[in-house]
Amino acid sequence: MREKLGLLVCVWFVLWGSCVGRFVVEKNSLRVTSPESLKDVYECAIGNFGVPQYGGTMVGTVVYPKANQKACKSFEDVEISFKSKPGGLPTFLLADRGDCFFTLKAWNAQNAGAAAILVADDKIEPLITMDTPEEENAHADYLQNITIPSALISKSFGDSIKNALSKGDMVNINLDWRESLPHPDERVEYEFWTNSNDECGAKCESQIEFVKNFKGAAQIFERKGYTQFTPHYITWYCPDAFILSKQCKSQCINHGRYCAPDPEQDFSRGYDGKDVVVQNLRQACFFKVANESGKPWLWWDYVTDFAIRCPMKDKKYTKECADQVILSLGVDVKKIDQCIGDPEADVDNPVLKAEQDAQIGKGSRGDVTILPTLVINNRQYRGKLDKGAVLKAICAGFQETTEPTICLSDEVETNECLENNGGCWQDKAANITACKVLLCLLPVACYAFSACLLLGFNGSLLWCSSDLIILL
């Protein structure tokens, strides 16, 4: 549920006197292979939706349509299709920024057969992250169905591509996500910034569905020691001048130290923000106690079961219901209560204080300001909150050749020779190296071989491997 928490952070801090944050734009590289005048490596910003191909690359040719250049309408209306013909490169749609949401541009491009979308900025500025729509516009069904990767490019680079295309040049591009996530060793460390609130509509439902679907994979990773997972929860503090206000009393615990927005955005009914803070704290304490007992993976069971058994709509978002779930998982309720402490006391809570400190960005990671947020090897994940997409991103965080078996499952090894002719992954268990950097000129099969060089139609070296050959 990508709640616009950045705005709320600023609301609190404006009351206090300032609004300071550091949002890091996660990027991947883009290499132009032709024409000669544009050959170079460029930066682009990864969109906060769709499915970036973490750990891999995608090669395609750029198309800038004569009509619907902002991609705000269906391309069926202007009778344009970007589907690749047999033997052709995948199509990357170049669209102009403006007039509609980034997500709608991507959706229209995907429906027209594009393999990826590049959005050219409309002003000269540093790259930004293309995000999902604001809350009131975030319920469109298509948002969860965007599967193509997206990238924002600078205005000057976009103008250069348009100029080359206007001269009749073919613009070929290699989108490369291999270094988007660090992969230093055999263990991946990742964080999931979440919330126990279930009253935010489609976004909350999407997050609950992700936790339920990803639970099995997450628990395998943790049980085998492949990953180190930590859940986190965002809170704010109430400025001293407003601690006695109705808003702070209903949204905060521990005398304004830890606050959350009202789940229904209505102070006169339902649950209050402080109820959310306490349940968030209970989930954080559950993880702490389970982790200390050597079973951190139980957090996934608790959060899944709590969402099913204790929803706000049934008036079961309570300590009593939570305790029943905790007991069913064999965890000591008393230890969790001790961790929670007294929400009315005028003292710091060690767990929530640590959570507030962790919200602030360090090193290459920016501040956490939206929910949910995944951080993998200290980089914020950009893309769809989907089991397959997230699993692929986590698997890209392992040092090459150290990926666990789960990373070789069908859900991760997408045969992109059959999907947009973009490349393919092969089973390492069958002694075949994963071909993540592969250009497919035709729907092809990959075979093990002792050595190979793949040459493009213009004779340039496109890909090389010691144990893979592509038969065209």
UniProtKB/TrEMBL annotation:
The chain crosses the membrane at residues 441-464. The lineage of its organism: Eukaryota, Viridiplantae, Streptophyta, Embryophyta, Tracheophyta. One of its GO terms (cellular component) is endomembrane system. It holds the Pfam family PA. Residues 1-21 form the signal peptide. It is a single-pass type I membrane protein. The keyword Cell inner membrane does not apply. Keywords: Calcium, EGF-like domain, Glycoprotein, Membrane, Repeat, Signal, Transmembrane, Transmembrane helix. The keyword Zinc-finger does not apply. It is found in: Endomembrane system. This is PA domain-containing protein. Its main location: membrane. Residues 188-395 form the Vacuolar sorting receptor thioredoxin-like domain. It comes from the Eukaryota. Residues 60-161 form the PA domain. InterPro entries: PA_dom_sf, PA_domain, VSR_TRX. It comes from Vitis rotundifolia (Muscadine grape).
